Amino acid sequence: PVAAPVAAPLRTIDRAEFESIVRAEAHALALARGFRNGSPFADWLGAEAAVLARLPSEGLTLAPSANDSSR
User: Fold this and answer.
1) Spatial separation of the C-alpha atoms in residues 64 and 19, rounded to whole Å
2) For residue range 19-33, what is the model confidence (pLDDT) as tens digits?
């Protein structure tokens, strides 16, 4: 099977915008489980992974942070 081409990102978001999106996603995760049987840290990690996974499909890319050692 041939992979579908990935469209070029339409917009780059900075760390502050990314964290705002993750914060809202983490809150939604906590709300969905009634704020029970979980932790804010686990909600944050789950939200961060979900947001990172869907950025390309939304035409977004995350700008490297100032302290990103991979540059």
Assistant:
1) 13
2) 999 999 999 999 999
